[in-house]
Design goal:
The protein is of the alpha/beta class and about 190 residues long. The protein contains 7 helices and 6 strands; from the N terminus they run βαβαβαβαββααα. The protein has a single domain, classed as 3-Layer(aba) Sandwich (Rossmann fold).
Length: about 190
């Protein structure tokens, strides 16, 4: 069984992230051999990174925060990721960047892709996350889903997002196909 975790990268009140996260999660649940998991950062209220040693440091002490321990276990148990990210001021959310920074070896050699929203479909946040993923020794894939501005405006007006998401079903399917291919290749290479 391949474990793919969908990470909801926003904790904002009235956030949009939960809707596309549940939509892509539902797509994953339809795939055979996939154990889809939803990781909501609201359930992992980590402090801002304050450890004396970076997570990549060999021999660093165990994490002292229980929530960081739970987060680390969830990342370690995952074979690949779909990160749903907002774009705030040309970048991703601080809470998502912080969650990434708390962990290191558990991210290594795993595939990741993105669902972005915000200005220009969250493309700038996704590009930054791809660079961060490379530093975490992850394999960011080319395929991604970018929600159009109309979906963002519909959300803010309290309208149904389902029609906007349905228009992206084919793109989502191709992205998942690509993610699963890379996830399986990397899992095999890791000896998993």
């Amino acid at each position: 069984m391949t474990v793919i975790s969908v990470i909801i990268g926003s904790v904002r009140q009235g956030r949009l992230a939960e809707k596309p996260a549940r939509w892509i999660f539902d797509h994953l649940k339809q795939r055979e051999g996939v154990d889809a998991r939803l990781l909501d950062l609201k359930d992992y209220p980590m402090p801002f990174f304050d450890a004396p040693l970076p997570p990549a440091m060999p021999g660093r002490p165990a994490y002292e925060h229980e929530v960081v321990q739970r987060w680390t276990q969830a990342i370690a148990a995952s074979d690949g990721f779909i990160i749903v990210t907002p774009e705030y001021n040309h970048g991703t959310s601080a809470v998502l960047k912080n969650a990434i920074d708390w962990v290191y070896p558990e991210w290594n050699r795993k595939a990741v892709t993105f669902v972005g929203y915000g200005s220009v479909g969250g493309a700038r946040a996704v590009e930054q996350l791809r660079e961060i993923a490379v530093e975490m020794q992850m394999a960011p894939i080319r395929s991604a889903v970018h929600l159009p501005a109309a979906a963002l405006y519909a959300h803010f007006k309290g309208e149904d997002l389902a029609p906007h998401l349905a228009e992206l079903d084919a793109v989502a399917g191709q992205m998942i196909d690509d993610l699963l291919w890379w996830t399986q290749a990397l899992k095999t290479a890791r000896g998993g």
